[in-house]
Design goal:
Blueprint: H1 3-7, H2 12-20, H3 25-35, H4 41-48, H5 52-64, E1 68-71, E2 74-77, H6 86-96, E3 102-109, E4 111-112, E5 119-120, E6 127-138, H7 142-148, E7 158-162, E8 171-174, E9 177-189, E10 192-203
Antiparallel strand pairs: 1-2, 3-6, 3-8, 4-5, 6-7, 7-10, 8-9, 9-10
């Protein structure tokens, strides 16, 4: 007598059968687009592992139910953003002008939030160190200033464009030089912050 077989639950064989089932064609398309989008028809069929006839059979259902959509680059999921954000556009322009997004070390001031004696600590050893990503634009980099649509006054070394929030008095390190945040501008896209323009002065 096979005791092990007798101890198996009645639904065990059903579970084993489900393990052998493959994903449906529409699920394969959705999974492929989750991993990468947009995709043209040929690439989508290849990455989903389906043939063209199968794709056309299920495409209409996915389109009609607003699960996928088609743009000038191919197919994508319904929530894919067709238009670049302001931050994405300024990144692209600066990259083409020779200013890529880079990692920058910063020192953020420790703030004493005691409401009776608010103060900030300004010694280098008492800064909280972080790494942010930003686009450095020195005052003399005319091509980058044009790409970012900024004008840098003589009293600043340059600007950093970033998604990270830096405050006045924070430090930033670049090419073995130290800078202090003197001011910042907030660039909005609708009601939301797109990115910040951090204004830097060099420190000894």
């Amino acid at each position: 007598m096979n005791k092990k077989k007798e101890c198996e639950p009645a639904s065990f064989s059903e579970y084993k059968q489900s393990d052998k089932r493959d994903l449906s064609a529409d699920t394969k398309i959705i999974v492929a687009l989750i991993r990468e989008q947009p995709l043209n028809r040929t690439m989508l069929c290849e990455k989903a592992g389906i043939d063209t006839s199968t794709f056309y059979r299920v495409r209409r259902v996915l389109l009609n139910r607003n699960i996928i959509k088609k743009n000038d680059k191919g197919y994508c999921l319904f929530n894919f953003r067709d238009q670049q954000s302001l931050w994405e556009m300024v990144q692209q322009r600066c990259l083409e002008a020779g200013g890529p997004l880079i990692e920058l070390k910063v020192g953020k001031r420790w703030i004493n939030h005691d409401r009776f004696s608010p103060r900030s600590i300004g010694l280098d050893g008492e800064y909280h160190r972080e790494v942010i990503k930003g686009i450095m634009i020195p005052r003399g980099a005319n091509n980058l200033k044009e790409a970012a649509s900024v004008s840098i006054p003589d009293d600043y070394f340059g600007f950093v464009l970033t998604k990270s929030l830096l405050n006045e008095g924070d430090l930033l390190f670049w090419r073995k030089r130290k800078f202090e945040v003197k001011a910042r501008d907030e660039i909005f896209e609708g009601n939301n912050t797109s990115y910040y323009i951090i204004k830097l002065a060099e420190r000894s």
